[in-house]
Amino acid sequence: SIGGVIGTGLFLGTAGALRTGGPIGLLLGYIIVGSICYSVMISLGEMIAYLPIPGGHIKLAERFVDPALSFTMGWNYWYNWTIILPAELAAAAVLINYWMDGRINDSLWISICLIVTVVINML
């Protein structure tokens, strides 16, 4: 699903990369990183097809490498998803303030976006 990988970082990060590397640099960067991501996803799909076990990629690390790696990946996965909401809220506030010319404080936009997110998740 393309919607699961496109976040506000795409819009914020693309601007800096375009300014620094230009259009060719941006395109080459996306091609290189996209090729790496594609290779990782194909490899993960092959491992799941070979050994379909419950637990996803965390359990695959335990099976193919070491239980310590699985433990570490589990904690890193948890940490990633606890940090992503505040990061996305801050990025959303930056994008909204760009359109609003900075007339309203970021904390108000972060609060509004957080309330909307909580309400949607409570439905």
From TrEMBL:
MF annotations from Gene Ontology: amino acid transmembrane transporter activity
Segments forming domain Amino acid permease/ SLC12A: 1-122
Gene3D superfamilies linked to this entry: Amino acid/polyamine transporter I
Signal peptide: none
Any single Gene Ontology cellular-component annotation: membrane
Location, primary (coarse class): membrane
Residues that span the membrane, as ranges: 27-53, 78-100
Keywords: Amino-acid transport, Membrane, Transmembrane, Transmembrane helix, Transport
Subcellular location: Membrane
Membrane topology according to the record: Multi-pass membrane protein
Pfam families: AA_permease (PF00324)
PANTHER family reported for this sequence: AAT FAMILY AMINO ACID TRANSPORTER, AMINO ACID PERMEASE
Protein name, UniProt field: Amino acid permease/ SLC12A domain-containing protein
Species this protein is from: Spongospora subterranea
